[in-house]
C-alpha cells in the first residue's frame, strides 16, 4: 500500500474515529503491505442495525475496497450467553431457531454496506465452530489466565454490585469468549463502538499470551440518537435503521434536534470536507433546509441519488406544501356508513389495538379531508376518494366497494 493510499485511509477515518489502540501499531499495520484480517463480530440478539452501527461498516468497506478482508463473525454461541454490555440485568436465553433467523437478517442489512460478493474480501464464521467443541480442560486453561479482579472491574459489573443486582458467572466470562475469538480468527484489526473496548482488549490479551501480534482496536464516535439524549436504540425508538425504508429514513432524520445536524453530517454521511464547511453555515442560517439535505444524504448513501431526490420531493410536497401524497394507500370499505374508529382500525389491521387508536383520536392526530376528528364513535357516510390522515406521516384514502 503506497503512502498516498495510507494517507487517504487515515484521513477518511479521522471523521468517525474516537480512539486507536494503538496509533503506532495502526500506522505499522497499514505500512506492512499485508492483507488485513478485520474482525467484525456480532451477537445476533436482535435483528437490526442502525446508522450508528454502520459507521464501523463503512470504515470496513473502505478497507475492503483496498483489498482487505472482513471476517464476519456470527456470535451464535455467545448469543446464547448474551453480552452484558450496558445491561443492568441478565439477558434471557435466545432459542437457536431465533438465532438463525436473526443471523440472516443481520447479513441482509450488512449487505447494504459491506461487499459479500467476493470471498477474498469477506468470510463468514460462527464461534460455535470452536466453542461448542472446546474440551473442558482447554476452557479452564482460558479461565486460569484472567483474574476475577480484572473481570469484576468492568464498569457495568461495578454498577450492578452498587445496586446489589446479581451477576451470573456466564456473564462474567463473556469478555473472555469474545477476546478468544480474536485469537482464533487471527484478527489484525477490529473497529468497534467504545462500549466494546473492554471485550476487545481481552482479544489483545489472549493474542499476546498465545504468541500472536495483537489486533489494533479502533473505537468509533457514538452520537446521541434522534431524541438528542441517549445513543441510538431500537427500544427507545430514537434510531435510523438500515432496514427502514427510504421514506422512513428521511422522515426519522427530520426529527433530529438542530444542534446535532452538523454532527450527523460529519459522522453519518459521505459529504466532502469542503462541503462540510459550507453546511456548518447553513445549519446556523437555515436549520430546516440543512436537515432536509442531511436526510437526503443519508437516504442517498443507502439507496442511491435518485431515490434521495424522490424522497426530498415527496417530503416537500407533503409537509412544506401541506399536500397529501399522490401514492397513498387505499382502504376498501364495503358499506358507506361507518364509525371513525372502524375506518382507522381497518387501515391499521392488527398493527394497533383499539385502545391505541382511541388515543390517537384523543390526541387530535386524526383528520378526515383536513378536518380534525376527535370522537372515535362519530359516524360517517363516506364517499370515494376521501382522505384520512393519522399523525404527520400516515395517509390513506377511501374506496367504496
What structural keywords apply?
401 residues; alpha/beta; Rossmann fold; Tyrosyl-Transfer RNA Synthetase; Structural Genomics Hypothetical 15.5 Kd Protein In mrcA-pckA Intergenic Region, Chain A; 3 domains; 19 helices; globular
SSE layout:
Elements: H1 3-14, E1 17-21, H2 23-31, E2 37-42, H3 51-65, E3 69-74, H4 76-79, H5 96-110, E4 122-126, H6 128-131, H7 136-144, H8 148-152, H9 155-162, H10 169-172, H11 174-185, E5 189-193, H12 197-209, E6 216-220, H13 246-253, H14 261-268, H15 273-285, H16 287-303, H17 305-320, E7 330-333, E8 337-339, H18 340-348, H19 354-362, E9 366-368, E10 371-372, E11 379-381, E12 387-390, E13 394-400
Provide the β-strand percentage band.
5-15%
Relative helix content: 40-55%
Looking at CATH, which topology of the largest domain would you report? Answer: Rossmann fold
Strand order, main sheet: write it out.
1-6-5-2-3-4
Count of DSSP helices? 19
Structural class: alpha/beta
State the CATH superfamily name of the largest domain.
Answer: HUPs
Shape descriptor reads globular
Instruction: Count the E strands.
Output: 13
Global Rg = 25 Å
Which CATH-level-2 architecture of the largest domain? 3-Layer(aba) Sandwich
How would a textbook summarize the main sheet?
6 strands, mixed
CATH hierarchy, class of the largest domain? Alpha Beta
Note the gap between the termini: 67 Å
Number of domains: 3
- Uncertain runs are none
The mean pLDDT is 90
Amino acid at each position: 500500500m503506497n503512502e498516498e493510499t495510507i494517507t487517504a485511509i487515515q484521513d477518511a477515518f479521522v471523521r468517525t474515529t474516537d480512539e486507536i489502540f494503538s496509533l503506532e501499531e495502526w500506522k505499522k499495520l497499514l505500512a506492512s503491505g499485508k492483507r488485513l484480517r478485520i474482525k467484525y463480530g456480532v451477537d445476533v440478539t436482535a435483528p437490526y442495525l442502525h446508522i450508528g452501527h454502520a459507521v464501523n461498516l463503512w470504515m470496513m468497506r473502505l478497507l475492503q475496497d483496498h483489498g482487505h478482508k472482513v471476517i464476519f463473525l456470527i456470535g451464535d454461541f455467545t448469543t446464547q450467553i448474551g453480552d452484558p454490555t450496558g445491561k443492568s440485568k441478565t439477558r434471557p436465553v435466545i432459542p437457536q431457531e431465533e438465532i438463525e433467523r436473526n443471523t440472516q437478517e443481520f447479513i441482509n442489512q450488512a449487505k447494504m454496506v459491506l461487499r459479500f460478493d467476493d470471498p477474498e474480501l469477506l468470510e463468514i464464521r460462527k464461534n460455535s465452530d470452536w466453542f461448542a467443541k472446546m474440551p473442558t480442560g482447554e476452557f479452564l486453561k482460558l479461565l486460569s489466565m484472567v483474574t476475577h479482579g480484572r473481570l469484576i472491574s468492568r464498569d457495568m459489573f461495578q454498577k450492578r454490585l452498587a445496586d446489589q443486582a446479581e451477576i451470573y458467572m456466564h456473564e462474567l466470562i463473556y469478555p473472555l469468549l469474545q477476546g478468544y475469538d480474536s485469537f482464533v480468527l487471527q484478527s489484525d484489526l477490529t473497529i468497534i463502538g467504545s462500549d466494546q473496548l473492554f471485550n476487545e482488549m481481552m482479544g489483545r490479551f489472549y493474542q499476546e499470551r498465545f504468541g500472536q501480534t495483537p489486533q489494533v482496536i479502533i473505537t468509533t464516535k457514538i452520537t446521541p440518537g434522534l431524541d438528542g439524549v441517549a445513543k441510538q436504540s431500537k427500544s427507545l425508538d430514537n434510531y435510523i435503521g438500515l432496514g427502514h425504508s427510504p421514506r422512513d429514513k428521511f422522515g426519522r432524520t427530520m426529527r433530529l434536534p438542530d444542534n446535532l445536524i452538523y454532527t450527523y453530517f460529519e459522522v453519518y454521511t459521505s459529504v466532502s470536507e469542503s462541503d462540510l464547511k459550507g453546511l456548518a453555515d447553513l445549519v446556523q442560517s437555515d436549520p430546516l433546509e440543512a436537515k432536509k439535505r442531511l436526510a437526503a444524504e443519508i437516504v442517498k448513501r443507502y439507496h442511491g441519488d435518485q431515490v434521495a431526490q424522490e424522497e426530498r420531493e415527496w417530503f416537500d410536497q407533503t409537509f412544506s406544501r401541506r399536500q397529501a401524497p399522490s401514492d397513498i394507500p387505499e382502504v376498501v370499505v364495503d358499506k358507506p356508513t361507518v364509525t371513525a374508529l372502524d375506518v382507522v382500525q381497518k387501515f391499521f389491521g392488527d398493527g394497533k389495538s383499539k385502545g391505541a387508536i382511541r388515543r390517537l383520536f384523543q390526541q387530535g392526530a386524526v383528520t378526515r379531508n383536513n378536518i380534525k376528528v376527535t370522537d372515535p364513535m362519530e359516524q360517517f357516510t363516506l364517499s370515494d376518494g376521501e382522505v384520512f390522515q393519522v399523525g404527520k406521516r400516515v395517509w390513506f384514502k377511501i374506496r367504496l366497494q
